[in-house]
Write a structure and sequence with these properties.
The protein is of the alpha/beta class. It has twelve helices and twelve strands.
Length: 334
């Protein structure tokens, strides 16, 4: 800084003001300082400035998995929104959703100097009283049931599941089978509960749910079992990747989709329209979830009240080629 000041013929304080974007510096002086910085290859030390201001312009993100479609797309949205707001993102992935791991991630983020934390946890951990977070840390949570303790942003999981089940019932199917996600997943639990509640409200039989782990492989295994269920004409699958496995299994067993069995997924991943047949699915607006997370963080950073509560982002059903009216023979048998 002293070298820049000497080259520009100004004081070190003036160089500091230019580095910090002080509008009080007159344009001609600012330009001389900028020219000297360029000539000398000087770059302001942003870390030192951040320590001085106590403002690091960085949002920490803790996430359990980078293999989950929802987590990755939410993370992408958070990073894009943060960048537009002039913030960087520091990511800490966890190999297991334990309190010790979460506490350790907060410690690491504290050492890396972040202004706030977005916690993407698809398992039932943040909504338990056993989890204690560092005091005075600004936290926004995605995909949780901790709305009384923290700000939570999530897709309206129940609304999406109801849209899927009602669509199949309106096509004349007597009931809807379900391939659920992992038991520990908050989103999977919400989708399964809404599936069952919708069937019961309509006075329909509730088949025993099958369970997968979000992967196409688990969907394939479940699909082989569904193919052997003669009275199965409609399936609601808790995510699109498992639905891909179901479609493969049904094809291998000679069960035509949608002529014999209709299939609905959840997520509306980029490849869903390219499945054979193109997959009817529930669209999640991950971009909006990420935007609301960053908005909540920025409100807290500007002095807004953190409070608690949950903001739900609506879903919509995208109808494609994997669903059709119930087969005539099934209607007659019913």
């Amino acid at each position: 800084m002293a070298d820049v000041a000497q080259a520009a013929g100004v004081s070190s304080q003036t160089v500091s003001r230019v580095s910090n974007g002080d509008p009080a510096v007159i344009d001609s002086t600012r330009q001389k300082v900028l020219d000297a910085m360029k000539e000398l290859g000087y770059r302001p030390n942003s870390a030192a400035r951040a320590l001085k201001r106590g403002d690091f312009r960085t949002i920490g993100v803790i996430t359990m998995s980078l293999s989950s479609t929802g987590n990755v797309r939410t993370l992408e949205a958070i990073a894009n929104c943060a960048s537009r707001a002039g913030y960087a993102v520091t990511l800490i992935p966890l190999d297991a959703p334990t309190q010790d791991n979460v506490r350790g991630a907060f410690t690491r983020l504290g050492e890396l100097a972040v202004d706030a934390v977005v916690l993407i946890m698809e398992v039932h951990l943040v909504d338990t009283t056993s989890l204690t977070l560092p005091p005075h840390v600004k936290v926004v949570v995605v995909d949780s049931d901790a709305g009384d303790r923290f700000q939570v942003v999530d897709t309206d999981q129940q609304q999406g599941a109801r849209l899927a089940v009602r669509h199949l019932l309106e096509l004349g199917h007597r009931t809807v089978w379900h391939l659920a996600g992992p038991e520990e997943s908050f989103a999977a639990g919400r989708r399964e509960a809404a599936w069952e509640a919708t069937l019961r409200e309509q006075g329909r039989e509730v088949p025993s749910p099958l369970r997968g782990d979000w992967t196409p492989e688990s969907g394939y295994e479940a699909g082989l079992r569904l193919a052997d269920e003669a009275d199965c004409t409609a399936v609601f699958v808790a995510n699109d990747q498992m639905a891909l496995g179901v479609l493969r299994a049904l094809h291998e067993r000679g069960r035509r989709v949608p002529e014999e069995i209709s299939v609905v997924g959840f997520d509306d991943i980029a490849d869903a329209a390219s499945y054979i047949p193109p997959l009817t699915t529930v669209h999640q607006d991950f971009a909006r979830v990420g935007e609301l997370c960053v908005d909540a963080v920025l409100r807290e950073l500007s002095g807004g009240s953190p409070g608690g509560g949950t903001t739900l982002v609506p879903t919509r059903l995208v109808v494609r080629g994997s669903t059709a009216s119930c087969p005539a023979h099934a209607v007659r048998e019913g």
